[in-house]
């Protein structure tokens, strides 16, 4: 089944408490060299049938209204991905 | 029929096929059955079991579901109960949870259960689903759950694996309980290296109901319909059953079944509300939660507690993973599911309530008068058993036990240090030990306010919850155990655990009424562990009799050991008390200057 | 001592005021909010998220909980509930008083009835504690029973309680006096400018993270009060939220 | 600053309550045509200096140990991304 990926990331100016906690933990675990970490969300929507322009538009709309909150997040990608199999 | 169902049907091991292929080797050992147990199944059926039957017997006859090693001892809880002790018991041992009459037409049901091993493997989800499971037990009695408690044991506080377990388990309990809207009113936290590879995650839930709302897990009334509702069935918790992946046993196709279950507290919260509406509308005749052993357990228990039989079409089960085989569907431990028996007249009302709460359901079959549990797969008979043989006639073992030889040495080894010269420093050191110091960092992660009825919780010794807003009628609960005492003397250790919980309830101002327990021990196949178990049960049963409080239910968790080393025997005892008015509760500790201090007792 | 004074507060003329409490799948403190309305003297009315009927209520409370599990973002799915359309329409113009508590506050921000949003607590844990607050604005529909600048103690319990907004919005909120509650005694979750609750420009819509409905009944509230010594769990500082709206509506 | 993206998704056989809640909400909001939704995590690690093979390996190790829980999640991608600016 084809899938549409939606990536949502916290806005750069909004503090990201989870990313910050990870950034703090990395060097303690010996992973150095990372300046900053941001944690966002990745959604995979499986599409029944073909991914028409309409379906893609529906995914874009869902991304903008439901899957993200524009006050704190940006939708950084809405894209069809190939199925591995 | 989907192609998936077709191909499964093609390979299906039917009763007919089993009759024709008596010599077919079956993976009973891989499923955890002993040879004598397997032969007993063959004897009961008069033929070899089908793959689906084998799945059912193997899970239902496991230690966890059948209590085969503990049963002979647990009988004492029933044998040592007097009529006076039973006076307030509406439902005793044997049902999903006991029910106690607390007056004014109100009743309380409560039970403690373990989720130790899953919590070691995946602390967050293991602990979360532990809370979920015990709460479903309470719902299935017809009650609204009103509070939870969590007696916990971890390894040494400075061991590198301890943070993973502590933080995962505490957030799992909080994450699930908080999302259900159940106040956490108490628990325990003990650090001891004996629990390093085997933390104890016990979860207690308590619910309240009106007497007339008591529901039991039985399927009666020929023609009544059987329905499965809640979450879809996935491959959860059947990792060990992957030998059933191909039920024709001729292929070694790898099966990818998650051994870990992920909890969905939102689904459970909806299930609570939806069940309460079902009870209020009186549209279910019998109800059973699905926990360990899933549909195997629910169908065989409902059928054997009823007065007839049951007929089920397994392809009607809504699946999350369409590749599941019939045996796997029967064994799946997917969370947040319930099974109910509904009269034909009530089906529409039932469906309306499901639709209101957006809960999925599927009608699986009906109650019959055949005395048999018949399960079909697309019309082919794959299970044909007497449900009692699955649910109640499992093996019972009189395991050998013997007093450990090391015990005398341990008991003789008394503390011989000098009395500390600086008493203040000694007290401070003691108070700072991980087992004594404040547990706020845990209790602050639990909601103790939700429902608005919590009269006492942390830091008090007992949790107190109001049941009736009009009169102030309420309950108190405390759980206690001391593994070190029990290690030194399991008989007295169990008695002390009861005495402590009883005192905590009594000093809060409540009248102790009933007991639940979670008996956490090592392997019953070790005679020394078995002795600890036998002594603990004897101690608890005797002490219950002396104090006049009955055990109403509980849970046994065996095989808590890493390598050859067992945990300390840890019988966690929960005591329920009753208040005619919770306004009279007494908190622990002093709140005002100038109060006199008395020391009571010996 | 404060704490046994519940009964005295109740004013029988308030019982005609109907305050709706919306239940979503996953709401937890809905029955508690109904109890708070009742203890304050009003009539609580249970509302169902899927209905289109506000049942003629005079005010609405969106209670705490984890609607739809809060798995996506707290309040994200609930804001699309059918009943939210009615509520939004009636609240936007400034007429219907609406209070969002905890998850309810999150729903109100998701529905854009209030600015800003909530993210995970800066310490990443669920936190349950008795929280001291300052009432910064006593002219809203929900705070008129308090004196401006007064202090109260009510329980705080959440996982996603960190209030965030961009600087411009924060300045605007401050400039217009729309910060209603501020945390005292240390910021419990990293909220910008210690903000615990805010209001819209009309003062009819208020959202706050702490739970006033859990500080309305002696014996079942916090162990402390900002107003003086209390008995065990005797804190009832939250009651004023509910009497505020009842009194306002009665005097209308 | 160059960034490494780590995508983590719930294992296909594991229940994904978050995805389930979203899948339930989509049709109610008029977004039809989606059969299933899975919600995972997307991490962006900013790298100080160049992304050497070593740094990438550190990111892979962090992904496997800290950023994902191998019992219930799969790391589906660890990759350098070009900065938009
Ligand atoms: N795991 C837990 N869950 C909930 N409450 C807990 C837990 N552990 C301890 N508590 C609560 O914290 C308080 C203090 O616990 P503890 O220090 O063990 O007290 P005590 O030593 O008096 O039994 C008690 O109210 C107890 O119920």
From TrEMBL, chains A, D:
What are the entry keywords? ATP-binding, Cytoplasm, Ligase, Nucleotide-binding, Purine biosynthesis
Associated pathway: Purine metabolism; IMP biosynthesis via de novo pathway; 5-amino-1-(5-phospho-D-ribosyl)imidazole from N(2)-formyl-N(1)-(5-phospho-D-ribosyl)glycinamide: step 1/2
State whether keyword Cell division applies.
no
* GO function term, MF aspect, one: phosphoribosylformylglycinamidine synthase activity
Q: Does the keyword ATP-binding apply?
A: yes
Q: What does the UniProt entry say about where the protein is found?
A: Cytoplasm
User: Which InterPro entries does this entry report, sorted A to Z?
Assistant: PurS (IPR003850), PurS-like_sf (IPR036604)
Quickly give the catalysed reaction.
Answer: N(2)-formyl-N(1)-(5-phospho-beta-D-ribosyl)glycinamide + L-glutamine + ATP + H2O = 2-formamido-N(1)-(5-O-phospho-beta-D-ribosyl)acetamidine + L-glutamate + ADP + phosphate + H(+)
Name the top EC class: ligase
EC number(s) stated in the UniProt entry for this protein = 6.3.5.3
UniProt cross-references to Pfam families, sorted A to Z: PurS
Family membership: Belongs to the PurS family.
Q: What does this protein do?
A: Part of the phosphoribosylformylglycinamidine synthase complex involved in the purines biosynthetic pathway. Catalyzes the ATP-dependent conversion of formylglycinamide ribonucleotide (FGAR) and glutamine to yield formylglycinamidine ribonucleotide (FGAM) and glutamate. The FGAM synthase complex is composed of three subunits. PurQ produces an ammonia molecule by converting glutamine to glutamate. PurL transfers the ammonia molecule to FGAR to form FGAM in an ATP-dependent manner.
The record describes its quaternary structure and partners as:
Part of the FGAM synthase complex composed of 1 PurL, 1 PurQ and 2 PurS subunits.
Q: Under what name is this protein listed?
A: Phosphoribosylformylglycinamidine synthase subunit PurS
Q: Which organism is it from?
A: Arthrobacter vasquezii
User: Gene for this protein?
Assistant: purS
TrEMBL record, chain C:
Cited SMART domains: GATase_5 (SM01211)
Q: Which InterPro entries match?
A: Class_I_gatase-like (IPR029062), PRibForGlyAmidine_synth_PurQ (IPR010075)
Question: Where in or outside the cell?
Answer: Cytoplasm
Catalysed reactions, semicolon-separated? N(2)-formyl-N(1)-(5-phospho-beta-D-ribosyl)glycinamide + L-glutamine + ATP + H2O = 2-formamido-N(1)-(5-O-phospho-beta-D-ribosyl)acetamidine + L-glutamate + ADP + phosphate + H(+); L-glutamine + H2O = L-glutamate + NH4(+)
NCBIfam families (UniProt xref): FGAM_synth_I, PRK03619.1
**Annotated pathway, please?**
Purine metabolism; IMP biosynthesis via de novo pathway; 5-amino-1-(5-phospho-D-ribosyl)imidazole from N(2)-formyl-N(1)-(5-phospho-D-ribosyl)glycinamide: step 1/2
Query: Which protein is depicted?
Result: Phosphoribosylformylglycinamidine synthase subunit PurQ
User: What gene name is listed for this protein?
Assistant: purQ
According to the record's subunit comment, the protein's assembly and interactions are:
Part of the FGAM synthase complex composed of 1 PurL, 1 PurQ and 2 PurS subunits.
Could you tell me which species this protein originates from? Arthrobacter vasquezii
EC identifiers of the protein: 6.3.5.3, 3.5.1.2
Query: What does the record give as the active site?
Result: 102, 211, 213
**Keyword line:** ATP-binding, Cytoplasm, Glutamine amidotransferase, Hydrolase, Ligase, Nucleotide-binding, Purine biosynthesis
- Location (main, coarse): cytoplasm
| Annotated function | Part of the phosphoribosylformylglycinamidine synthase complex involved in the purines biosynthetic pathway. Catalyzes the ATP-dependent conversion of formylglycinamide ribonucleotide (FGAR) and glutamine to yield formylglycinamidine ribonucleotide (FGAM) and glutamate. The FGAM synthase complex is composed of three subunits. PurQ produces an ammonia molecule by converting glutamine to glutamate. PurL transfers the ammonia molecule to FGAR to form FGAM in an ATP-dependent manner.
Checking CDD domains in the record gives: GATase1_FGAR_AT
HAMAP family annotated for this entry? PurQ
